[in-house]
Amino acid sequence: MTDLILHNYYRSSTSFRVRAALALKGLDYDYESYHLRRGDQRESDFLGINAQGLVPALQTSEDVLTQSLAIIEYLDEVYPQPPLLPKDAIGRARVRSLAMIVACDIHPINNLRVFRYLRKHFGADNEAAATWFRHWTETSFEALETRLVNEAETGNFCHGDSVSLADICLAGQVINNERFNVDMSLYPTIQRVHSSCMALDAFKKAHPSAQPDAE
Amino acid sequence: MTDLILHNYYRSSTSFRVRAALALKGLDYDYESYHLRRGDQRESDFLGINAQGLVPALQTSEDVLTQSLAIIEYLDEVYPQPPLLPKDAIGRARVRSLAMIVACDIHPINNLRVFRYLRKHFGADNEAAATWFRHWTETSFEALETRLVNEAETGNFCHGDSVSLADICLAGQVINNERFNVDMSLYPTIQRVHSSCMALDAFKKAHPSAQPDAE
């Protein structure tokens, strides 16, 4: 029995982040799927769960939590083992800033709803949408790669040799990139960290292809 | 004497967030300005400070911190008074999720560099850019308003009667909206919280118009 329900979609990278955190913490949950391209998440039932009409949302016995990074910070506070943030304030700031390169500066600009707007209002075709995706991903991955190469704290994972919030965001984005032919050979350190992540059972379990709604 | 240097720009709403947090904590800092439209933040000197070439960045005696929310979480951990996050995990999750509606789902899509891409690759004119800004702001403000109206934790501020990270993000966005004619009468609760914020000296001090590089 579990009191956690994850409202999510197999291919959503923000959903992946929460699935990875839940798996790392060893937490079971019920899986509720919303088909984003069909618009399930904008049905009134789900709007009562998350007024934003976005996945993921994590229902606990206390409340419904939204925004993947806020959900993961909550899980890390309530289920502290294994920790997903370092103990020192500077280390936590570093991990959060690496995570937010993906969570603020890549993903929201490359969301399905943004592609829809580009198609509808600017006549973007598939190739223009893919070029847009790669532009924002590559701009930020270049900076992320530079930081990971130059900063002494980088280890097998983004921050030392244990997995953190930054790795969760990085892996979700790298998986997303596969659909848009991003040339990952430009980012050897990101690719190396991604491989470290995907060697873990928790990341395998969170992978889109392992979800019940995978197509 | 201060050991904090804030690399920022008067009109950047992410810079505003950090200025507001610093002022709420009563911290002095040196102000370094980067003219974003001239591209100062992409000069090599600044790229050595932040590989992303984005403001704000906060230089401390220990390290350079980037990403406004990661900076503010750091400030809240190292200078805990007054707290910018509630004490309970559910409350913190709520405040972070409200903050991220702005920080993830509005601001990154409406950044200067996104407008530049729309102009260059999709021929967007000023009106198309303003319509884009309003679309993403209004979509998320509608959800934010719904949450603030319906959730019992809302008080004079987003979370009870003391200021939090969520208010800092909200106020920065409302100030940004003024340049794009967003109809704030649609969001009376957001507007009320914004007024509570702007009555505080710290928010007045952080306002774009009060900065040395204001035009």
Mean pLDDT of chain A: 96
Named at the architecture level, the CATH assignment of the largest domain in chain A is: Up-down Bundle
Order of adjacent strands in the largest pleated sheet of chain A: 2-1-3-4
Whole-angstrom Rg of chain A:
17 Å
How are the SSEs ordered, and which strands pair?
The structure is a homodimer of 215-residue chains.
Chain A: E1 5-8, H1 13-24, E2 30-33, H2 44-49, E3 57-59, E4 64-66, H3 68-78, H4 89-103, H5 112-122, H6 126-150, H7 165-177, H8 188-198, H9 201-206
Parallel strand pairs in A: 1-2
Antiparallel strand pairs in A: 1-3, 3-4
Q: How would you characterize the overall build of this protein?
A:
2 copies of one chain form a homodimer. Chain A has about 220 residues and is of the alpha+beta class. In chain A, about 50% of the residues lie in helices and about 5% in strands. The first copy, chain A, folds into 2 domains: about 5-80, Glutaredoxin (3-Layer(aba) Sandwich), CATH 3.40.30; about 90-205, Glutathione S-transferase Yfyf (Class Pi), Chain A, domain 2 (Up-down Bundle), CATH 1.20.1050.10. The first copy, chain A, has a 4-stranded mixed beta sheet, with helices on one face. In chain A, helix 1 runs parallel beside helix 3 (about 70-80), helix 4 (about 90-105) runs parallel beside helix 7 and helix 7 (about 165-175) crosses helix 8 (about 190-200). The first copy, chain A, is globular and about 45 Å long. At the A-B interface, helix 3, helix 4, helix 5 and helix 6 of A face helix 3, helix 4, helix 5 and helix 6 of B.
